[in-house]
Amino acid sequence: QVQLVESGGGLVQAGGSLRLSCAASGTIFSFNAMGWYRQAPGKQRELVATITRGGSTNYADSVKGRFTISRDNAKNTVYLQMNSLKPEDTAVYYCNYERLSGLVYWGQGTQVAVSS
Question: I need a surface site. Which of 39, 46, 56, 59 has the fewest CB within 10 A?
Fold first, then answer.
């Protein structure tokens, strides 16, 4: 099992910044990728950003140039730096951890609210 604990969410004004953290613990092996997804009320969960074992990153078009995903291997932690936040970024943000086998674990989520 892998446990994921997200932190860093909150309420911020449009144009502001937040940094989300996701710490992984448990049986950490066969890591393939970690990522951030979000789900707004009434909408499906969508990809925000991912980072692979090799360090390759991928971003949703809506956040390119504003969000940056990074990781600290020593701490088994992935970060999402979110700048120039917009009201449409409001959502619950979820961290996930994918093994090479394809098995995926999810965190409990952290709320991000951006006021206009």
Answer: 56
